[in-house]
Write a structure and sequence with these properties.
Structural class: mainly alpha
Shape: flat
Number of strands: 0
Radius of gyration: 29 Å
Length: about 350
């Protein structure tokens, strides 16, 4: 018995050589990336290719192949497959980020040439499109009012619809609602504008207004709010609902005090994604709001302008002054969406349930 006990650790202990293997240094990916970029530029110059996109594609291909070859040589084929998957993820990430950074850089560099306090506080009243001067105040005011009204319409409807689908729905009605939400998700913006034009303007006889454009924007916003809120509510653990119901709390109060506060961060993010989508829409505004150079603070009567429509109008003129105003308005539009996202995240963090003691 004692002899068997003494021999077990010796026979069961794994060999050290079978568990240890050569590892590449941590700086290897950075070195391979630098080598691939240099080689891609060199091959492009030798081949006479002047497009930097071609250089980048060659560098990306070399990065993946070199990573696989080096890892196979040092760590083995199994680890090389893991490395090549990681390399492909990084290459796709870089390919997605570069156009975004390029767009942001061009917009900021061109937009800052005109953007100042005067541009933000004046309209195009009395200024010809081909002339320098003028501002974006009337379009910014119209965008704020139209997006605000659309959010007030779409956010509550989308939130209540998602709550119904997750907490109460389960029959044919819920299936029908889900089907129509999926259909509405793919509706082009021009179709929403034509729907409001045919009902609100042609059938009911109302004229162009910011409110008409806001209703079309609300149609585009609702399915995004429903889908994002629905997914966030599904992530709330059922244990929280069961604990509240076990204490005798009504279901509606459980949803209001437990479920919604738990998912408030994701819900707010979904609403902001919907707001970001409708903020840049031009077709419904062009059909229903018409656009104007004057300041119209009343969204329920008369034509209004908006930032996307202003960018379209100024770029269509084609002069240097008009194109500069278009870039500046595009920068204002991006800043507007960013500010809304920051405010929404601040509200979500403030209203989120506290996890610490």
């Amino acid at each position: 018995m004692s002899h068997a006990i003494q021999e077990r650790p010796v026979t069961a202990a794994p060999r050290r050589g079978s568990l240890s293997h050569a590892r590449l240094p941590r700086w290897t990916p950075a070195a391979v990336a630098a080598f691939s970029i240099a080689a891609g530029i060199g091959i492009g110059l030798v081949a006479g290719w002047h497009s930097k996109v071609q250089w980048g594609m060659i560098a990306a291909l070399l990065f993946v192949l070199t990573t696989y070859a080096v890892t196979t040589k040092v760590e083995g084929s199994r680890q090389a497959k893991d490395r090549i998957a990681t390399s492909l993820v990084w290459v796709c990430f870089v390919l997605a980020v570069i156009p975004l950074l390029s767009l942001a850089w061009v917009t900021i560099s061109k937009g800052m040439e005109v953007l100042d306090v005067y541009f933000l506080t004046h309209s195009m009243n009395g200024v010809l499109d081909a002339e320098a001067g003028g501002g974006v105040y009337h379009a910014l005011l119209g965008t704020i009012e139209q997006v605000g009204i659309a959010t007030l319409i779409a956010a509550p409807i989308g939130l209540l619809t998602a709550v119904y689908l997750v907490e109460y729905g389960g029959g044919k009605l819920a299936q029908a609602v889900t089907f129509f939400v999926d259909v509405m998700t793919g509706i082009p913006s021009i179709v929403a504008g034509l729907f409001i034009l045919s009902t609100w303007t042609l059938m009911l006889g109302f004229g162009p207004s910011g409110f008409a454009g806001a209703m079309a924007l609300a149609i585009l916003m609702m399915p995004v709010v429903v889908r994002s809120t629905e997914e966030m509510l599904k992530l709330v653990p059922n244990e929280l609902r069961e604990a509240s119901l076990a204490l005798g709390i009504p279901k509606w109060r459980t949803i209001l005090k437990v479920v919604l506060p738990t998912a408030i961060g994701g819900i707010t993010t979904g609403v902001m994604l919907a707001v970001a989508r409708i903020t840049g829409e031009t077709a419904p505004v062009l059909l229903l709001v018409f656009g104007t150079k004057l300041i119209n603070p009343n969204p329920f009567e008369g034509a209004q302008s908006s930032l996307p429509l202003y960018v379209y109008e100024q770029y269509s003129v084609g002069t240097d002054a008009a194109v500069s105003r278009a870039w500046a308005a595009a920068l204002v539009l991006i800043a507007f969406v960013m500010i809304l996202n920051l405010v929404a995240r601040g509200i979500a963090r403030w209203k989120a349930p506290k996890t610490g003691r």
